[in-house]
Every structure is written in C-alpha cells, then in structure tokens.
Specification:
Blueprint (H helix, E strand, L loop, with lengths): L1 H35 L35 E2 L43 E2 L2 E5 L15 E3 L4 E8 L5 E8 L5 E10 L8 E2 L4 E5 L8 E6 L28 E2 L14 E2 L1 H6 L3
Antiparallel strand pairs: 1-3, 2-11, 3-10, 4-9, 5-6, 5-8, 6-7, 7-9, 7-10, 10-12
This protein binds zinc ion.
C-alpha cells in the first residue's frame, strides 16, 4: 500500500517535471525564433472597422514616419549610393528605364517609367555616412506623422498595404499622410491616432524594403486626373488610390504639385 503511494508520488513528480521542462523548452524555442527576427512583429488588430470616421483633432505638429529620422533617407545618386536612382519627391528616375506600365501619352503609347515623377519619398535605412543599407528598413516601425484619423487601408498584395491618415490643420483644411509598402497595420479604419503612434511596420521587400510616404491634399486618387489628361487614360494603380507617380503630356501639369501632392519632407520640416 505504502509502496504504491510512493510510486504514485514519484510518477506525479516526473510528470510535473516533464511539464515544466516542456514549458521551459517552448519558452526557449520562442525566444530563439524571436531572436532570429530583426524586430518582434505585432499581430493585425481584429475588431471591425468603424465608419464614418470622426473629425480629426487639429494637428499642430508633424514628425517623420520612421524614427529616429536621421536613420532613414531617400536614395539619391552620389549621396545615398552609386546607383542612378532618385527616390525624392518630384524626382524623375532615369534608372527605371523604359518599363512602361503606367501612363499613356496622347497617341496611346506607353510612357517610359523614367519620365514619371515620383509623388512621394521612398525612405530607406541609411548608415552614419548617409549611405543606404539595403534591407535595413525591413520591419521598422512606421509612426503616424501627426494626430489624425486612419481613413483607409488597402491590401496591395505583394506590395504590402497602403494606409491613409487624415489630418486637420488649424485653418480647418485637411491633409493626408500615405504610407505604402507596410504590413502588420496596427489601427483600424475610422480610428483616431496620435503623432508618433506606431501604425504598421515596413513591409519585407528584401533588399528593396522601404517606406513610400506621401503628403497630399486629397483623400484618394479616383478623380485627381481630369478628362483628357494622361492620368485619365490610365495610371500605375488605376487611379484608385493615386499612390506613386504622376505624368502628363502637358509639362505644366506633369509634376505632382499640380495634382495636390506635397513634398513630404519639406512639409514636416515646416510643421515641426
Ligand atoms: Zn515610392
């Protein structure tokens, strides 16, 4: 009788130790897996979005979406590296060559990608010398540039998500900050966000991981290109969100300024 009770206690101890060992093992394995990632990644929020969104509070101060700001910069030939690439706002991009999947000219012919104007800024990770470190921006937290309300997220598949935040300026006008090539979006449509709040991470595009960031005066791109302009004949993204590039047969209306895009870096620097 006593022998059997003793055996049962021993069995319980063994089972308990095995259980503890299992939990410890799982914990160590999880730590190991997390350690392999450059940053621990949050889950997507799961509650339902709510619309229409509330009026955003007035945004008095703006900041950069990737922080610290001096760890990220656009690619500029001769400054960020040797490639013939320029990913600043309003720049044309000779390195993109003759790829022509976006605009059509007046004859209906495709316009070479190198003639398009970049409508935002592509922020890459840079080292202390200001040189782009390929892939360094991958999974970097993306912060709301000012107080506002998240007004849409669009799943662009392999390109990551597009997120738009509406900001209300003190004069009552609205500007929109757009974040493209992001994933793990952390706020819902209709949800207020505050300046500096993490809203997503930079999507994994391998060496090309970067944040395409826009500041603009319009909500989406569905009606920015008037009839008869190149944009009305088709764009990179079928005008749905207006993200990316502008161009037109008439040079005076080719630049993104014409369509209500703003230079994001200049805008933040004048609203800090
Ligand atoms: Zn871009």
């Amino acid at each position: 009788m006593q022998k059997s009770s003793c055996g049962r206690t021993l069995l319980l101890i063994i089972v308990g130790l095995l259980g503890l060992g299992g939990i410890l093992g799982l914990y160590l394995w999880e730590s190991y897996i997390q350690g392999l990632l450059p940053r621990p990644l949050p889950a997507f929020p799961t509650t339902l979005p709510f619309t229409p969104w509330p009026t955003p509070p007035a945004a008095t101060t703006f900041d950069f979406p990737l922080l610290p700001a001096d760890h990220y910069a656009p690619y500029v030939q001769g400054i960020s590296g040797p490639l013939a690439v320029d990913t600043r706002y309003g720049a044309q991009n000779p390195a993109q060559g003759n790829r022509s999947n976006c605009f059509r000219d007046a004859n209906g012919d495709p316009v070479p990608f190198s003639q398009l104007y970049h409508a935002g800024v592509d922020l890459f990770g840079v080292n202390e010398a200001g040189q782009v470190v390929w892939g360094q921006a991958k999974h970097a937290p993306v912060h709301a540039v000012a107080d506002g309300v998240l007004v849409f997220t669009v799943n662009a598949g392999g390109e990551g998500y597009v997120v738009a935040i509406e900001h209300r300026l003190l004069d009552g006008s609205a500007v929109y900050s757009i974040y493209w090539h992001v994933s793990h979006v952390q706020a819902l449509e209709g949800q207020p966000v505050t300046r500096g709040q993490m809203i997503a991470v930079v999507h994994d595009l391998g060496a090309n991981s970067h944040l395409h960031w826009e500041m603009r005066t319009f909500y989406d791109g569905s009606d920015i290109f008037p009839a008869g302009t190149a944009g009305a004949r088709g764009t990179c993204n079928r005008q749905l969100i207006g993200v990316g590039y502008t161009w037109d047969d008439v040079p005076a209306r080719a630049h993104p300024d014409y369509y209500g895009y703003l230079d994001p870096i200049a805008f933040v620097e004048s609203h800090r």
